[in-house]
Amino acid sequence: MTLTAELRRRIVGTTTGLFAHAPYPLENSLEYEGDPGLFGPDSITWSVIGDVATFAGGIRALLVQAAHQEVAAGVADHSRYRDDPLGRLSRTSAYVTATAFGAMPEVEHAVELVRRAHQPVRGKSHRNRAYSANHPAQAAWVHNVLTESFLATHLLFGKRRLTADEADEFVREQTAVGRLLGSDPLPATARDLTTWVVDHPDIGVSPGMDGAIDFLKSPPLPLKVKLGYWVLYQAAAATIPGKIRRVLGIRRLPGAILAGKSMAGFLRWALGSSPSWYIALNRVGAPLPAGYRFRTKPFE
After folding, report:
1. 18-32 b/e with 16+ CB inside 10 Å = b?
2. Taking the domains of the chain in order of start, what are their residue ranges?
3. Is the model more confident about 234 or about 296?
4. What contacts 293, CB < 8 A, 6 or more positions away?
5. 30 HSE (CA, 13 A, CB side)
6. Integer Cα distance of 270 and 4 in angstroms
7. For 23-71, how does the pLDDT look when each residue is reduced to its tens digit (9 = 90+)?
8. Residue 67's CB: how many other CB atoms inside 10 A?
9. Which parts of 239-299 fold into alpha helices (H)?
10. Which residue in 20, 92, 37 sits closest to 298, CA to CA?
11. Which residues lie below 8 Å from residue 113, measured CB to CB, with a gap of 6+?
12. Contacting residues for 258 by C-beta, under 8 A, at least 6 apart
């Protein structure tokens, strides 16, 4: 094995190990031959979610989601993210993977798991307002912020720059996921989505937000991945609109975007494109897109 191959192998093992704390959702995906799931090989979703820029997108989404006072209260009161951070990370990753790349039975199973997990998540925030994970407007905040974050980070750190029409198409495609979880409203263009997020009336400082931000600044990750996480965290934070960053109390560091681009390029070199994208392409019999290098196994 060459030095380059060994370096890639180690990076793949370290990175994928972070997401191996929940069952892999596409374990039996090839049994659903020909099933494109919600999207299919010609979608924008497969190329966006299949890129390493989603790492920064996931961090950004968690930061922005914490700005909603009732959603932050629900997370603080019911989530075990402090006790089981890699389990929470793995379960969230499994949900995104299943809804993006899964055959319809796998999509439906992932959505049902989320619905069950959300059922007991209800209570009142610090300002005495009711919250429920299944409330359409609060579910919309979580879903829409995730979509907007994946798009924002892909536009800066993705393998290829999306056109304005492709960005709108990605947002439209993601409304299909939101509808499955009963989210409402679901903006259908990139501009409307960003405006909805930035101008949301329930954004504000809260105890739940403070706790989430403190955790995300320095999560209990293995030492060998902390530097990479810090670069991605700062890059993600730098993409957040100033109005929300001021609520969150986080700064945009000089050079964070450039560092994020470099880190994304390095991870893309080491990891290639998502093996779940590869599995989905094989399931529907579609050719591999030119210019992409795929890993063929989710955990190596």
Report:
1. bbebbebbbeebeeb
2. 51-97+113-270
3. 234
4. 272, 273
5. 10
6. 9
7. 999 999 999 999 999 999 999 999 999 999 999 999 999 999 999 999 9
8. 26
9. 242-248, 256-271, 275-284
10. 20
11. 95
12. none
